[in-house]
Amino acid sequence: MTRKTILIADDSAAMRAMLISIVEPLGDFRVVEACSGFEALRLLPREQVDLILTDINMPDINGLELISYLRNNPNYTHIPVFIISTEGSAKDIEKGKLLGANEYLIKPFDPAHLQKLIESYLYKVH
After folding, report:
1. Measured between alpha carbons, how far is 121 from 119 in angstroms, rounded to an integer?
2. Rounded-to-integer distance, Cα 84 and Cα 87, Å
3. How far is Cα 86 from Cα 119, in angstroms, rounded to an integer?
4. DSSP symbol at 109
């Protein structure tokens, strides 16, 4: 099986480290980190990304703008995107889903739930 790559886009180094610690027990994943939406976009052409975990509130390009770009670019429409954010109102969640987020988790979230979602999207057809 090909090694899967997860892109984590969050301006908080502590949050990126926490997400990596949640992903690592799941298996042999490669993790690519971006500290902004702009950096995530810069990395995408060079990486074979299988899943993206993104915050909403980031400098330069926020997570919603990142998702909008991904869903409007034929090279990236197939990549599942999970929003992980403190922005948890019904309006925020609806906006994220309408833009094309596959999942929306509100911080703080259950790490086991995120692990199940990652496994579901990377090892099963949706």
Report:
1. 6
2. 9
3. 23
4. -
Going from the C-alpha of 4 to that of each of 18, 76, 106, the distances in angstroms are 19, 15, 24
Q: Is the pLDDT score of 88 beyond 60?
A: yes
Instruction: Report the distance separating Cα 5 and Cα 20, nearest Å.
Output: 12
Instruction: Pick the closest to residue 83 from 59, 123, 51 (CA basis).
Output: 51
Looking at residue 121, the DSSP 8-state letter turns out to be H
The whole model's pTM is what?
0.95
59 pLDDT tier (thresholds 50, 70, 90): confident
Euclidean distance between CA atoms 33 and 35, whole angstroms: 7
Main-chain dihedrals φ then ψ at residue 11, nearest 5 degrees: -75, -10
Distance in angstroms (rounded) separating the CA atoms of residues 27 and 65? 30
1 three-state secondary structure:
coil
In order of start, what are the domains of the chain with their CATH numbers? 5-123 (3.40.50.2300)
